[in-house]
Please model this.
Amino acid sequence: MSGHGTPIPMTSHRAAPLTGVAEVPGDKSISHRSLILGAMAVGETKISGLLEGDDVLDTAKAMQAFGAEVVNHGGGNWSVFGVGVGGFAEPDQVIDCGNSGTGVRLIMGCMATSPIAVTFTGDASLNGRPMARVTDPLALFGAKTVGRSGGRLPMTIVGAAQPTPVRYVVPVPSAQVKSAVLLAGLNAPGQTVVIEKEATRDHSERMLAGFGAEITVEDSDEGRVITLTGQPELKPQVIAVPRDPSSAAFPVCAALITPGSDVLVPGIGLNPTRAGLFYTLQDMGADLTFENPREEGGEPVADLRARYSPNMQGIAVPPERAASMIDEYPVLSVVASFATGKTMMAGVKELRVKESDRIDAMARGLRANGVMVEEGEDWWSVEGLGPDGVQGGGTCESFLDHRIAMSFMVMGMGAQNPVTVDDGTPITTSFPIFEPLMTGLGAKLSQA
Ligand code: S3P
Model:
């Protein structure tokens, strides 16, 4: 399990041109939801392209602990034989969600309206993250929670035996919170209403509709109003998981900063609530194109083509775009280091409560590699050094955070000197084939 064992340092050396086709793994958000909704449907849900990273595998184990049968057929093909809404059994062991905030928060939601007691834990990163944002709305359904101070894991939730539906305005832009409330609403009678002021990724809404739930989404003065009718019988689905835009970000950004590169990243999910990074890169002057746009499994998809882009300019990233690229700011800050001029990233307070405090983690590592960074509570800026100006040569801490580790590996590909992270093992949580995939394109990565 990543992040639980001995740290393994990883170094990225200046790369030859990166070329070829980068087939990145399945979408992490959709993979978690496929397993969970599959477990809440009646019958066999068939999934292809499931992300087999540690985060998702932990969710698969949890669904088994709740009584669903989960079968791995190999090659990313899985089946889930669901027990139906309200059919969860009480697990006889603690549910360990490893590093995954999405896993634990969604699972808390889906069990909170069943009369079972479940104890959750995770790794050091997850056990430090705030859970009250989820347990507060779950309490409105009637669930009871006992956890550590500050609303942190380990934590036990006793689900409501007679849940009441809720109307909840999500106070932070978080798809995990929204989704936890919707999943809880599945087993409450009547209508559960969730209102989000800013649109966040909408995979839960799309997939709930796909599984046959009655769900509507309306824009109002309050924001996006999502109404779900409880206690449906969910119908099993055949799901082809699109490739993850958040993983595609790494080969795309590596190509933009590595001289001579030309990389094709096929079949990437471009749901508008997820694609903000790619538009930001285009705004900076990146040579990035969307080829062969199409629809797959209810999601817009295209092939991304990224070429070396020595003329990128720093920009002010529109704050209203933050939710659609929240996981991509670490790697964007690396690209910003290779642009000319300042890149300003505002409205990003949520970055401080991810797998690590991502503003702090990136600022430290960028400075260790000669890049000037300024930061405030909900903003940060990076002073670009131009295409040949990033010295590198630094060692960075990854803080049990996969995206921090991968971002600094990308930096090493374009920097003048190698870049090291103290621990590359967290990468397996979301992108288990990162090393062979990047090496196959021409990256030079070494352990230690
Ligand atoms: C996710 C939501 C986001 C994101 C995470 C995946 C999801 O978290 O950072 O990687 O699948 O719902 P927040 O809900 O905390 O913004």
